[in-house]
Write a structure and sequence with these properties.
By secondary structure, the chain is an alpha+beta fold. 21% of the residues lie in helices and 44% in strands.
């Protein structure tokens, strides 16, 4: 094979390899969602608990099981559910129904779970570690004759 043909083959192999690498790095790809990847999906649930008689929203049943021994309330309703694709060391934001914001910044993902800096505007700032598929629940203050709570659950592969 002559030198110019080998050069064209080499360039074609390089371009094909670069294209595959670029495709793997796109959001939604296997690489972008791997445990070592730069993105961390989390499920966020905003609930209102109240001492007024009522029921527990079926969507919040798992959260209710976790909280019923720790908090006193007679009803729990889900206000919003959202899946947020967070990027490591970047702030992601979720709006609360009263106009305040919850800011989450993943700091480290490892064997013990996801370490996040969380700021519930006007309520609390903290660092929290949540194992994958486990909820961290944070009180977010009073809201419409009850209290808001924010549940954050890492959900990565």
């Amino acid at each position: 094979m002559e030198a110019s043909s080998r050069l064209r083959v080499g360039i074609a192999v390089f371009v094909a390899t670069a294209g595959i690498a670029a495709a793997l790095a796109l959001p939604g790809s296997t690489l972008a969602q791997s445990p070592g990847g730069n993105r961390v999906p989390v499920n966020v649930m905003i609930v209102q608990t109240s001492n007024q008689k009522g029921a527990v929203d079926p969507r919040a049943q798992e959260l209710h099981e976790k909280l019923k021994k720790q908090l006193r309330y007679k009803s729990m309703r889900v206000i919003q559910e959202q899946r947020v694709d967070l990027e490591m060391n970047r702030v992601g934001t979720v709006d609360l129904p009263d106009g305040r914001k919850v800011r989450m910044r993943p700091l480290h993902k490892g064997a013990k779970g996801l370490l996040m800096a969380v700021d519930v505007q006007g309520a609390v700032k903290l660092d929290a570690r949540a194992p994958n598929h486990h909820k961290v629940v944070i009180g977010a203050g009073e809201y419409e004759n009850g209290n808001l709570a924010v549940s954050i659950e890492p959900d990565y592969e």
